[in-house]
Write a structure and sequence with these properties.
This protein is of the alpha+beta class and 128 residues long. 17% of the residues lie in helices and 62% in strands. It is built from 1 helix and 9 strands, in the order αβββββββββ. It has one helix spanning 2-23, and strands spanning 29-37, 40-51, 54-60, 66-68, 70-75, 78-87, 90-101, 104-113, 116-126. A 9-stranded antiparallel sheet has the order 4-3-2-1-9-8-7-6-5, with no helix packed on it. A hairpin with a 2-residue loop joins strand 2 and strand 3. The N and C termini lie far apart (47 Å).
Length: 128
């Protein structure tokens, strides 16, 4: 009888930890949203992967070229990363922060344009 009670306790504890692990927020996946600049709208795709505490990923650009994200982190349901791109020989960096809520990432981007710091809201949906 003691073995049975011990087995039930172990199964209950393992089941509980599995449920808790499944409930832990995870930004892993492909995220999409639209951005409009100068009356031009384009789709943005972001691929993220969380491995332990390490967040990696890439932003997919024109012609399906991928640019790795930099300085990435995920803590307490919040993502942060930067993307550095080059256009016409000039590099520019955009910083992203966002809060994960199920299959939605919502936050702010910060970038410099014409010598001025600017920010925009962004909201991405996880692709199924």
């Amino acid at each position: 009888m003691k073995r049975f009670a011990l087995a039930v306790t172990v199964v209950a504890l393992v089941g509980t930890s599995t449920v808790l692990a499944a409930d832990k927020p995870d930004p892993t996946g492909t995220w999409k949203w639209s951005v409009t600049f100068n009356n031009n709208t384009r789709e943005v795709t972001l691929k993220l992967k969380l491995d332990g505490d390490k967040l990696t990923g890439a932003m997919v650009g024109r012609n399906n070229n991928e640019t790795a994200i930099e300085d990435a982190s995920f803590k307490d349901g919040e993502v942060a990363f930067s993307v550095t791109r080059e256009r016409n020989g000039e590099k520019f960096t955009t910083k992203y922060t966002g809060k994960l809520d199920g299959d939605t990432l919502k936050g702010k981007t910060e970038f410099e344009r014409n010598g001025e710091k600017q920010s925009r809201d962004w909201e991405a949906k996880r692709s199924k």
